[in-house]
Amino acid sequence: MTRTSDNSSDAGTGVRIVRVADDRDGQRIDNFLAGQLKGVPKSLIYRILRTGQVRVNGKRAKPDTRLVAADEVRIPPVRVAEREETGAPARGLLDKIGQSILFEDKEFLVLNKPAGIAAHGGSGVSHGAIELLRTLRPKDTLELVHRLDRDTSGVLVLARKRSALTGLQELIRENRTTKQYLCLLQGHLSRASRSVNAPLRKSVLQGGERMVRVDEEGKPSLTHFKVIELYEPASLVEATLETGRTHQIRVHSQHMGHPIAGDDKYGDPDFNKAMRSFGLRRLFLHAKHFGFELGGKARSFSAPLADDLSAVLDKLPAPRRARQG
């Protein structure tokens, strides 16, 4: 067994005990391991976490475990064959991610994430957005600040400096950011603006699938909905998050009786089938805006509605009342 410092990058052949440096205080263990095990697919990192091979101060770690400075992390040996089992990402996928970069400076890189690409690898996904960007920018230090579901397109922020990562994540935890989404909801809301204040509770099914439901014992969750455009079968709505819970918009939409079009988990199967006739092939949810102020500097990032979703809107009929007028 070897004992190394936080900046070691060679997994070696034996178990390592790595002491967490001060600038890694608060970092999630999965992201910490991604930095320690360069080139190892996220799916393998989650596997060694699930099987209890990674320990923090002698205790089993979960993927969302947050580290504290001076913690000791046990990292098992990882065979080279395991590192290479998923193969290199396709060139076309790398080009697609590269063309999706909206903004970058010394602190942040902002992506207009395409639908169909996960934020990170794992759970059967070999290469997520973070892995693809690390392949494109092997000399850069990149960390996910937040996440988007695989089928959700739009603004995804990554940090290029540790201070930027921890600073923005603190703002997110304190609900001091502005996050807005566009979604197509079933039917017409009773009011042009509506807020849903309903606690959400997350559970994990036997197969590892995450499910979220409204539950009085859940975490406080607040979403503001504003109607942008009406169509005969649906409403284009802007959703502004006051909190950032897993699947928050999807579950709050379902809770008020207007689920998101194309939502196979929380939506209406008949409505989803009808929407496929207008060309909808995925969840109609797009992260359009992310704003915050950090270090005295205001930042605002926006991504235009994805082309496939715009094409759906172009095919939707206007409401009957509007046509009669």
UniProtKB/TrEMBL annotation:
The keyword Hydrolase does not apply. Its EC number is 5.4.99.-. Keywords: Isomerase, RNA-binding, rRNA processing. It holds the Pfam family S4. Gene3D superfamilies: Pseudouridine synthase (3.30.2350.10), RNA-binding S4 domain (3.10.290.10). GO terms for molecular function: 23S rRNA pseudouridine(955/2504/2580) synthase activity. Belongs to the pseudouridine synthase RluA family. It comes from Tahibacter amnicola. Responsible for synthesis of pseudouridine from uracil at positions 955, 2504 and 2580 in 23S ribosomal RNA. The gene is rluC. This is Pseudouridine synthase. It comes from the Bacteria. NCBIfam families: PRK11025.1 (NF008249), rluA_subfam (TIGR00005). Residues 27-86 form the RNA-binding S4 domain. It catalyses: uridine(955/2504/2580) in 23S rRNA = pseudouridine(955/2504/2580) in 23S rRNA; a uridine in RNA = a pseudouridine in RNA. It is an enzyme of class 5 (isomerase).
